[in-house]
Write a structure and sequence with these properties.
The complex is a heterodimer of chains A (114) and B (113). With 114 residues, chain A is mainly β. In chain A, 0% of the residues lie in helices and 55% in strands. In chain A, strands 2, 4, 5, 9, 10 and 11 form a six-stranded mixed sheet that branches. Chain B has strands at 5-7, 10-13, 19-24, 31-37, 44-50, 53-57, 65-68, 75-79, 88-95, 103-104, 108-112. Chain B is globular. Classes of the chains: A mainly beta (114), B mainly beta (113). At the A-B interface, β4, β5, β9 and β10 of A face β4, β5, β9 and β10 of B.
């Protein structure tokens, strides 16, 4: 069965500092991987996705993630945090069956200090 | 087209009452998904449709839950005899069948008192 683990329910960074949000997955075959962002009382917005093309994926708002098969990881990074990045971030995995249903991690809340 | 629309945004109901939520997907999307998100957790898959056919249901979807997509356009999710444990955000997403990217609505927050 597939699963996603996000290390750290809360991450706090200073404005302008590097953002690193960790995600590890478990899957018997290379899955599709996603990062979503959720602002309070809102739905989820796709930041980026990995579907077996380039292992370094660039997304919106300056975020990027690198797929590392040997480490079963898909960590999200951004070189310089902005106050507007404060939100909940979810890593998700989708199998290569035809459903494309998503299995989410428990989320990481990013706090950005001025 | 303004994206996936869910109605209502908020619903407060008494335990034992029935509630129904509506989701309008992006117009050309033939896939529609329902997820449930409880406080402090990631969303959990409930069910999905391709056109009007319900292709998969999670074991989370008890007999009190039913979802329909009668004409392959909008969908409804009904919960009968609500329980306090049903309190959650219910999220709808849509996509094209051959595309991994799902677009989410803003959700319906259900509070059962």
């Amino acid at each position: 069965a597939q699963s996603v683990t996000q290390l750290g329910s809360h991450v706090s960074v200073s404005e302008g500092a590097l953002v690193l949000l960790r995600c590890n997955y478990s899957s018997s075959v290379p899955p599709y991987l996603f990062w979503y962002v959720q602002y309070p009382n809102q739905g989820l917005q796709l930041l980026l996705k990995y579907t077996s093309a380039a292992t370094l994926v660039k997304g919106i708002n300056g975020f990027e993630a690198e797929f590392k098969k040997s480490e079963t990881s898909f960590h999200l990074t951004k070189p310089s945090a902005h106050m507007s990045d404060a939100a909940e971030y979810f890593c998700a995995v989708s199998g290569r069956d035809s459903s494309y249903k998503l299995i989410f991690g428990s989320g990481t809340r990013l706090l950005v200090r001025p | 087209d303004t994206g996936v629309s869910q109605d209502p945004r908020h619903k407060i109901t008494k335990r034992g009452q029935n509630v129904t939520f509506r989701c309008d997907p992006i117009s050309e999307h033939n896939r529609l998904y329902w997820y449930r998100q409880t406080l402090g957790q990631g969303p959990e898959f409930l069910t999905y449709f391709q056109n009007e056919a319900q292709l998969e249901k999670s074991r989370l979807l008890s007999d009190r839950f039913s979802a329909e997509r009668p004409k392959g356009s909008f969908s409804t999710l009904e919960i009968q005899r609500t329980e306090q444990g049903d309190s959650a955000m219910y999220l709808c997403a849509s996509s094209l069948a051959d595309n991994t990217e799902a677009f989410f609505g803003q959700g319906t927050r259900l509070t059962v008192v």
